[in-house]
Amino acid sequence: MAVIFDQSGKDLRALRHPEKRERPATPVPRKPDWIRVKAPTSKAFGETRAIVRAHGLVTVCEEAGCPNIGECWAKRHATFMIMGDTCTRACAFCDVKTGIPGALDAGEPERVARAVAELALEHVVITSVDRDDLNDGGAEHFARTICAIRKAAPATTIEVLTPDFLRKQRALDVVIAAKPDVFNHNLETVPRLYLKIRPGARYFASLRLLQEAKEIDRQTFTKSGLMVGLGETREEVMQVMDDLRAASVDFLTIGQYLQPSTRHAAIDRFWTPDEFKALEQIAYAKGFLMVSASPLTRSSYLAGDDFARLKAARQAQSIGA
Fold it and tell me: Which of 250, 163, 240, 144 is nearest to 209 (CA)?
């Protein structure tokens, strides 16, 4: 069996099972009242789950344990995770399984497209695990998925949330050439915490990816997200905002980090709703077209509504210019 290494050089055979990650156990703190959600029970939730299952698809909603799954699936919104359920990296914040992925499923793009059409989605978010084992990082699979959705559901707008394609030459060009409406790549945290939280990634490589996406196609909206509660300072968050604006990023999301298990990175603190509101105001003042900042904000949370607001903000900006 071939040995696969992540970007930090660690042999992924040792990371096949998440419980074997070499991290000290840290207690999961009790959530404050403002961050608790109700268990999903609606009929529409069950219908969405049935459609996802019927097409043999994976969603990041389930794999990452998103707290908004009940609300989103009740509205028949789901974020599809392509290229399998196993990631080649082991980020300290993420609950997705780590190990050696299987081969790409050639029929997956068409199944995603059929599910999008069946759910009658106005806007869909497509994300993936990191696939450092692939020569293009999975860029062509993203492109095929975008094209399949365009054929099956031509009225649906498409947002992609991609890996960083680190050291994958021209991978970004392939994705942008497929014309997604929104290109999203999350920075996740501040530069100081990268070695601890995103050891396989590089802050400035991720930042440059976002900048290049805008340079390739000025009409594609660019988007990125941050988690807070990992030990960052307010000043560091504001510096990341400045870096993103320098890269011409249009849309910023900021949400509270929630510790998936005792083996994941510990929560430093819970930011309050008022603090999130202040971050939102600062981000708008720095020039973002769209900002979503709240304890439960996630990259794909209410993405369709936010995309409509994003388009309106660009139109208003054009009229003002």
Answer: 163
294, 255 in Cβ contact below 8 A?
yes
Helix, coil or strand: residue 154: coil
Grouping H, G, I as helix, E, B as strand and the rest as coil, residue 59 is strand
Please state, in angstroms and rounded to a whole number, the distance separating the CA atoms of residues 305 and 29.
32
**CA dist list (Å): 70 to 73, 76, 91, 251:** 6, 10, 25, 24
- Confidence band for 19, pLDDT divided at 50, 70 and 90: very low
What is the CB neighbour count within 10 angstroms for residue 196?
Answer: 14
Position with higher pLDDT, 285 vs 78:
285
Residues 6+ apart with CB under 8 A from 298: 66, 67, 68, 225, 253, 255
Q: Where are the domains of the chain?
A: 40-320
**Residue for token pair 């600062």:** 282
DSSP 97: E
Q: Which 8-state DSSP code applies to residue 17?
A: S
Q: What topology is assigned to 40-320 in CATH?
A: TIM Barrel (3.20.20)
Nearest to 201 by CA among 92, 114, 286: 92
Bridge partners, 256 (sequence order): 228
Three-class HEC string of 157-171:
EEEEECCCCCCCCCH
Between the alpha carbon of residue 286 and those of residues 58, 80, 119, 320, the distances in Å are 36, 31, 37, 17
Q: How far is CA 214 from the centre of its chain?
A: 18
From 224, 245, 320, 321, select the one nearest 288 (Cα to Cα): 245
Q: What is the helix (H) or strand (E) element at residue 86, kind and residue range?
A: strand 86-87
pLDDT band at 13 (very low <50, low <70, confident <90, very high): very low
Q: What pLDDT is recorded for position 53?
A: 75
